[in-house]
What does this fold into?
Amino acid sequence: MINDSINGKINIFGMTIDELRNVISDLGESRFRAVQLSEWLYKRGLQFFPDMNNMPKSFIEKLDKKYTIQRGEKVVQFTSGDKKTSKFLIKFHDNVAVETVLMRQSYGNSICISSQAGCNMGCAFCASTINGMERNLTASEMLAQTLYINDLLKKEGEKVDTIVIMGSGEPLINYDNVVRFMRLIHEDYCMKLGYRNITLSTCGIIPGIERLTHEGIPVNLSISLHASNQEVRKQIMPIANKYDINDVVKAAEIYASATGRRITYEYILIENVNDTVDHAKELVNLLRGQLASVNLIPLNPVTERDWKQPSAGRVEFFKNYLLKNNVTATVRKEMGQDIKAACGQLRNRNLTSL
Ligand code: SF4
It folds into this structure.
């Protein structure tokens, strides 16, 4: 059972069907009402108990006395000029706010959610870490980000098709809440989202990858690698001081063989830092023969840092080098540059005004 108490009331939003059954029997009602309640909460956007018009009034009053529905609240939304990317800042009961991004891709609607408010992993290219980590998000708060956008899309006859947990935060540091969230959105009574439509992105927390390998939920795993050797990785990702790059790749390889899921390695290309031919060669040696692909991301200039995006020619060369050497590679399309869609930038700009 989640212990999510707000202003003396328990947050019911984010409970599993079994937890809802327990709530209902504690209130002396028939357990079959749990299915109705879950529909209201997860499919019909319920915000206030009295809006449930198929429930007895006495039951609603009992619920209202003890429980609350915390779905978060949108503070601000920006949509890119081409309308394909929208970025939302969603605020929770204690004024903590996080970013959630909707990307309308050719293959469907993809959202990127945050798992922590801020982050303390310190990756040098990332705006989310500049103000440190405020707190972990609960499963309910991750669900709130997801259903907020799903409900918006429903009005257009669409839905969220894929979810990436790649916004602010390191999900494997907030393991229990993140796994709970992924299980919940997979359930029929919630979003019925296949595990293959969920991607968890980590900077390479090896114990977390090992635990996830045995969790029985074969989600896609994405590793923020961003370097081809330990020395460069240490310069840009402090987590490399704790976990060796070879051990991270090994843990991911074991995950891939246990789940059958191809690993995606995220690689932000930074001019003269990790984009030379030697880096490309090292990357090939590290990944050749694995069930993996590399997602190359030309650095999205973060105003707070002083690094440059490589030229388009350099990016193309790097990609082709990998492909020629049998390592699958793609270059990520830039989306939403005009609304500062890079990780953490919107939240940082709004921190002072919340
Ligand atoms: S890239 Fe991810 S893990 Fe690294 S600081 Fe940013 S949010 Fe944290």
Notes: The longest strand covers residues 97-105.
